[in-house]
Design goal:
Order of helices and strands: EEHEEHHHEEHEEHHEHEHHHH
Bound molecules: 4-(N,N-dimethylamino)cinnamoyl-COA
Strand content: 15-25%
Largest sheet: 6 strands, mixed
Number of helices: 12
Oligomer: single chain
Radius of gyration: 19 Å
């Protein structure tokens, strides 16, 4: 297993756990951290023993945003030519295996955007979400204006982006930004527990389910339903569907082969 400077990686059964680990900078998302996160996700995605991935931070901060000190001096041509942030940052959103962001403390700016790239966010009761880019003279640039709007609707997204105010965990759950709120002390254990439950299903079937839900963001209802139907039909061509339905009829637990 590779060693990293800015993240910790740990495998818990069939779950890959990535912990963002720049405590002195409240997990500010430096280029290095995003590169290492991308590498860790590459490793977990290509490991057949891993069925789900959890990304978390510290008790104080999931991540306090892009590393402001690192990017402050960049000019337009530099960031445009280098496809600044974009190229590395989309890795979590591109994962095919199910992903959970387990968020405690600050999830600000790029930290909030990163969390929204996961399949869902499990929040500690200490979590605080904001897109405060206007306070530093820029706008959200890692998908925040698009993903937050799809998750919570235009009115709340506009207020969050334009006023830079923070949303606490209770409001975030009410608004649909997070799936559930749990006590901070239980956050990582609960995220691992849910991830293990997901990882215990047939891997390819879970991937198809994720693809189908994600299509709801990308297309019309009619196209999305058609896409879902095609995927649902194709599950009938795989061994795990035969096993799952046979196991039900025989009143036993299914044994998935991931094919
Ligand atoms: N970047 C760099 N360092 C940070 C940081 C950040 N985002 N957040 C905190 N730190 C550092 C602090 O500078 C401090 O370092 P030292 O002074 O000790 O060296 C250390 O972490 C501890 O922070 P504080 O002393 O400030 O701790 P407090 O508990 O007092 O306050 C705080 C915590 C989270 C309220 C505060 O640190 C804070 O307001 N941080 C900045 C939050 C913020 O504005 N985040 C949004 C950043 S903008 C783009 C793509 C994406 C983005 C932009 C463009 N493109 C594709 C173009 C994204 C932009 C953002 O994320």
């Amino acid at each position: 297993m590779a060693t990293y400077d800015t993240i910790l990686v740990e495998t818990r059964g069939a779950v890959g756990l990535v912990t963002l680990n720049r405590p002195k900078a409240l997990n500010a998302l430096s280029d290095r951290l995003m590169a290492e996160l991308g590498q860790a996700l590459d490793v977990y995605e290509s490991d057949d023993a891993i069925g789900a991935i959890v990304v978390t931070g510290s008790e104080k901060a999931f991540a306090a945003g892009a590393d402001i000190k690192e990017v402050a001096g960049f000019g337009f041509m530099e960031v445009y030519k280098a496809d600044f942030i974009t190229s590395r940052w989309e890795r979590l959103a591109r994962c095919r295996k199910p992903t959970i962001a387990a968020v405690a403390g600050y999830a600000l700016g790029g930290g909030c955007e990163l969390a929204m790239m996961a399949d869902f966010i499990l929040a500690a009761d200490t979590a605080q979400f904001a897109l405060p880019e206007l306070t530093i003279g820029t706008i959200p640039g890692a998908g925040g204006t698009q993903r937050l709007t799809r998750l919570v609707g235009k009115s709340k997204a506009m207020e969050m982006v334009l006023s830079a105010r923070r949303m606490d965990a209770v409001e975030a759950e009410r608004a649909g930004l997070v799936s559930r709120v749990v006590p901070a002390a239980d956050l990582v254990d609960e995220a691992i527990r849910v991830a293990q439950r997901i990882a215990a299903f047939s891997g390819p079937v879970a991937m198809m389910a994720k693809e189908a839900v994600n299509a709801a963001y990308e297309t019309t209802l009619a196209e999305g339903v058609r896409f879902e139907r095609r995927l649902a039909h194709s599950t009938f061509a795989i061994e795990d569907q035969k096993e799952g339905m046979a196991a039900f009829a025989e009143k036993r637990q299914p044994v998935w082969k991931n094919r």
